[in-house]
């Protein structure tokens, strides 16, 4: 199903709706990444708020590449 992201309003695909979200709302992968990367992020609270990765919200299709991976990658030209 396609829910609406409760943070940014984008399409938030999910297999199931999480009971702790309003009907029709979920979390998009980009917002999940941002919320989980906050310094005060609490994985247990995140799960209570948004449900399980891959069920109630989907990780981003193209996750951001860490800067250190970019700097370590060989140049192609
Ligand atoms: Zn979002």
What does this structure look like?
This protein is of the alpha+beta class and 77 residues long. It has one domain (2-72). It is 29% helix and 12% strand. It has 3 helices and 3 strands, in the order βββααα. The chain has helices at residues 29-36, 43-50, 67-72; strands at 2-5, 11-13, 25-26. It has a 3-stranded mixed beta sheet, with no helix packed on it. The termini are far apart. It binds zinc ion (ZN). Zinc ion is lined by residues 5, 7-8, 10, 28, 30-31.
Q: What labels would you give this structure?
A:
12% strand, alpha+beta, 77 residues, binds zinc ion, 3 helices, 3 strands, globular
Secondary-structure blueprint of this entry?
Layout: E1 2-5, E2 11-13, E3 25-26, H1 29-36, H2 43-50, H3 67-72
Parallel strand pairs: 1-3
Antiparallel strand pairs: 1-2
This protein binds zinc ion (ZN).
Residues 5, 7-8, 10, 28, 30-31 line the site of zinc ion.
């Amino acid at each position: 199903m396609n829910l609406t992201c409760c943070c940014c309003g984008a399409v938030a695909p999910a297999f199931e709706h999480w009971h702790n979200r309003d009907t029709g709302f979920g979390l998009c992968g980009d917002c999940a990444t941002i919320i989980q990367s906050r310094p005060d992020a609490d994985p247990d609270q995140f799960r209570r708020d948004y449900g399980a990765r891959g069920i109630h919200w989907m990780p981003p299709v193209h996750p951001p590449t860490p800067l250190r991976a970019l700097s370590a990658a060989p140049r192609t030209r």
